[in-house]
Amino acid sequence: MGEVNAATPRYRVERRLAPSRVAVVLVPAISVLLAFVAGGLVLLASGEDPIAVYRAMYTGAFGSRDGLAETLVKTIPLLLTGLGVGVAFRMQLWNIGAEGQLYLGAIAATGVALYVLPSAPAAVLVPAMVVAGLTGGALWGLVPGVLRAYLHVNEIITSLMLNYVAILFSEYLVHGPWQNPMGFGFPGTAPLPDAAWLPRWGTTRVHLGLVLGLVAAAALWVVMRRTRWGYEIAVTGENPRAARYAGMNTARNVMVVMAVSGALAGLAGMSEVAGVGHQLQRNLSPGYGYTAIIVAWVGRLNPGGIALVAFLLAGLLVGGDQLQMSMGLPAAIAPMLQGTILFFLLGGETLTRYRLAWSRHPATGEATPLPELNEVA
């Protein structure tokens, strides 16, 4: 083995102290663009015209009043679960359990409507269902929060596993004690009373859940930007050791953040039951809680950005359904594009937060970083 030449550069990856502002804006946009290019290549390899497919998806989701209304309907659960996931991610708590928390919110709201206040008027029943949905999701989110705060158990594993518990518990209810006796054996509860239905706009399926989601986004923005608790969340997420040194109760914040995250996802479940299906049924969610991860990351964990991305991804889902009806293509194209977008976003996030540095002086360890993106621009 010969000696290493002192002039030979040595490369290493190091964290950026302050990510470039230009990169923060451009990298996600370029990542999404590349994801659609990659998805187009997959379509091309399958013998389909990517331009025609994308045009049909856009037309189906945004090209008509009914299509736009359906896009708004799917925006509601994506917005609420995205906000829930986003508030946890801000503190670097990786809540992957929004899907299960959505189901628990739906179960709690259904229980109130069918068995606790079945004869109550809408003015009483709807707020009670909202509270039940928030509470059910919050309690389900609190479980991994407590385990993380006091036992240092990884919340990724616990929140993910609890998804399956919640979904299977829901299936047990709709196949067992809560099954509609007049449902001819189909899995589902009895229909909710009319007073439990969320008001709709005109003849569309757009319901009050959209207002709840927008109010939640506005409230979360104020809390994150204008309150001490929002500041503590940001500090704890960036540097837990500094937060503890400053006297912040990190264990309490972990539990509260996970509870708030779960509550927002639970509100999404309540909205789906009271605004769309009007009963608890099997396969209530097509994976809104998992898509919420993409919504939160693309939206840069900003409530306004999350609202915009939820609307766009909802259009992607509606457009995928339209492809199946108009062109005979599988609706799985939409989930394929979602996964591609997430893949490219994770790669872009790595480029934003880290940089490549090299050293021509191995003995001293002096390194010269690659130029920042804004310096190149």
Q: What would you say this structure looks like, in words?
A:
The protein is mainly α. It folds into 2 domains: 14-46 and 330-377, no CATH class; 71-299, no CATH class. It is 68% helix and 5% strand. The protein is built from 14 helices and 3 strands. The protein has helices spanning 21-45, 50-62, 65-90, 98-116, 122-151, 155-175, 209-226, 228-238, 240-245, 250-277, 288-298, 303-326, 333-353, 373-376; strands at 10-15, 354-361, 366-369. Strands 1-2-3 form a 3-stranded antiparallel sheet. A hairpin with a 4-residue loop joins β2 (354-361) and β3 (366-369). The model is unreliable at 372-377 (pLDDT under 50).
For this entry, give a set of tags:
377 residues, mainly alpha, 2 domains, three-stranded antiparallel sheet, 14 helices, 3 strands, 68% helix, globular, disordered C terminus
Determine Rg (CA atoms, Å): 23 Å
N- to C-terminal distance: 43 Å
Strand order of the largest sheet: 1-2-3
Helical region count? 14
Give the biggest sheet.
3 strands, antiparallel
Strand content: under 5%
Overall structural domain count: 2
Secondary structure: helix percent? 55-70%
Number of strands: 3
C-alpha geometry: globular
Look at the structure and give the mean pLDDT: 88
What is the N-to-C succession of helices and strands?
EHHHHHHHHHHHHHEEH
Q: Structural class of the secondary structure composition?
A: mainly alpha
| Low-confidence runs of at least 5 consecutive residues | 372-377
